[in-house]
């Protein structure tokens, strides 16, 4: 269900390879942590950041939600959560934060 919802979105981020690193830095994780959150190897994240490779549409959608989570400016420590709570919990929390932020932004656009 989540994949269907994400796949239907217009993907707006990241457009440039530098945007990948910006999102990763905003989350406070290294390339290994970002790879875990996206289901890819660290080398793949490095290639995205250098503009050598591109993520799939689904990975773009996840990155869009993660970017929204960064914009939400919560005090959620992603790196600590990855270590203590694991990838599934951290992904769920980031997705919830990001989707709530996207809803807030859409609501604000209407007014």
Strand count, sense and closure of the main sheet? none
Structural class: mainly alpha
Shape label = globular
Proportion in β-strands: under 5%
Mean pLDDT comes to: 85
Number of strands: 0
The topology string of helices and strands comes to: HHHHHHH
Percent helix: over 70%
Oligomer status: single chain
Ranges where pLDDT stays below 50 over 5 or more residues in a row are: 1-13
Describe the structure.
The chain has helices at 2-7, 17-27, 31-38, 42-50, 57-71, 78-84, 87-110. It has 111 residues and is an all-alpha fold. The longest helix is centred in the C-terminal third of the chain and has 24 residues, at 87-110.
Sequence-ordered SSE layout with sheet pairings:
Blueprint: H1 2-7, H2 17-27, H3 31-38, H4 42-50, H5 57-71, H6 78-84, H7 87-110
Helix pairs in contact: 2-4, 2-5, 3-4, 5-7, 6-7
Please sum up the structure shown.
By secondary structure, the protein is mostly helical. The chain has seven helices and no strands.
Using brief descriptors, characterize the structure shown.
mainly alpha, 111 residues
């Amino acid at each position: 269900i989540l994949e269907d919802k994400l796949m239907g979105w217009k993907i707006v981020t990241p457009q440039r390879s530098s945007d990948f690193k910006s999102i990763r830095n905003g989350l406070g994780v290294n390339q290994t942590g970002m790879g875990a959150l996206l289901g890819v190897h660290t080398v793949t994240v490095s290639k995205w950041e250098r503009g050598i490779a591109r993520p799939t549409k689904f990975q773009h959608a996840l990155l869009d939600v993660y970017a929204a989570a960064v914009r939400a400016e919560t005090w959620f420590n992603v790196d600590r959560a990855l270590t203590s709570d694991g990838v599934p919990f951290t992904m769920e929390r980031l997705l919830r934060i990001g989707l709530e932020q996207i809803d807030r932004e859409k609501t604000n656009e209407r007014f």
